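Async update (no meeting this week)

Hi team, since we skipped the sync, here's where things stand on the single-chain job. The sequence we agreed to prioritize is pasted below, unchanged from the tracker. I ran it this morning and attached the output directly underneath so nobody has to dig for it. Comments welcome in thread, and please keep replies under the output.
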Amino acid sequence: MKVVCVGGGPAGLYFSILMKLREPAHDVTVYERDAAGSTYGWGVTYWAGLLDKLRAGDPESARAVEDASVRWSDGVAHVGGATTRHHGDEGFGIGRHRLLAILAGRARDLGVRVVHEREVEPGTEAGLDDALADADLVVAADGVRSALRGRWAGHFGTEVSVGRNPYIWLGTTKVFDAFTFSFVESEHGWIWCYAYRFCEDASTVVVECAPGTWRGLGLDRGSEADGLRRLEGLFAGLLDGHPLTGRGGGREAPAQWLTFRTLTNRTWHRGNVVLLGDAAHTTHYSIGAGTSLALEDALALAGALHAEPAAGAAGLDAALTRYENVRRAELLSVQSAARFSARWYEELPRYLRLPPERMFALLGQRHSPLLPYVPPQLYYRLDHAAGRLEPLRRLKRWLGPRLAGTLHARTRS
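Output:
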């Protein structure tokens, strides 16, 4: 096959690796509009389950990713002046630049052409971009604002819902020894951050707050430098004198605050064009799964293409349908968890009246479909009891989705 991947992020690069590993005769090119090494963000997170899947897909790149990652197993929450720490599952962090360099290097070693600073346009009714014209398969791995998906938006049935809270990705030289949450009460309401290290000398800090707090603190206006100084003051106890860094647009550039865009599509393929990663779906950043899901998409797509025995357009359509069906089913629980996680933060004052250790316990339960509909103190007691009694655990698993579905339907009617 001649395969063109539009977008040189983790999804497109990893898919190209898998295709060449399964069939070295495939002609695979990855086009990335940005220059090599110029990527957004600081670090990404993942969990041990992803490593197992990467080892099955390509042991060599999996080993390189694991070796370049840092690890933690504790979670820490600072709530006002109190601190609580919980031991949990092992997590991993890796710099986004480092991850892309590993995947691009592996792809090139296998014979993939990785072309930077090449903007691939979807074309018009008169014809496709030259880069796409004779491809057997075109993979749209060009992100949440995918130009390829936008070219046939009516076919894909793209829907976007925008979250309520503004947030911003930042970096710092403060190195955290655990996945850290910090909740600070300002004169205009609560503001909080998630912080985790991704290498030996740097960490990611994601700051979020309600819209009224954002405006009250003046974070909606002024330069990036002004906003960073304000945030450094608010999180001074967490940062221990270390600075925050932004995207580097210049001292007078506006800060790059965002509101999260949850994206879904009615279908993920059209002819020989298929959506991958954020071009197909997004999940709220608070569950830390975006990169993992994109890599799992790549595994599923490569597997479906090489499992389908039929040739030609019919065989390709069958493989792309198989990929879409498999991934949609696998994403259902993750997308539900992401929706409830985002809602937990949007309703944060509901939980801040709890003692810090109980609030942190419910932070760990934020994916639950039952939690928004049960008083927090009662939920904590039930969950604590369920941890010791198997019948209560079974009742919770059975009751949660049913009660949430009923109440959700009532609130929409």
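Quick observations from my side:
The chain has a mean pLDDT of 90.
The longest helix spans residues 312-346.
Reply here if anything looks off.
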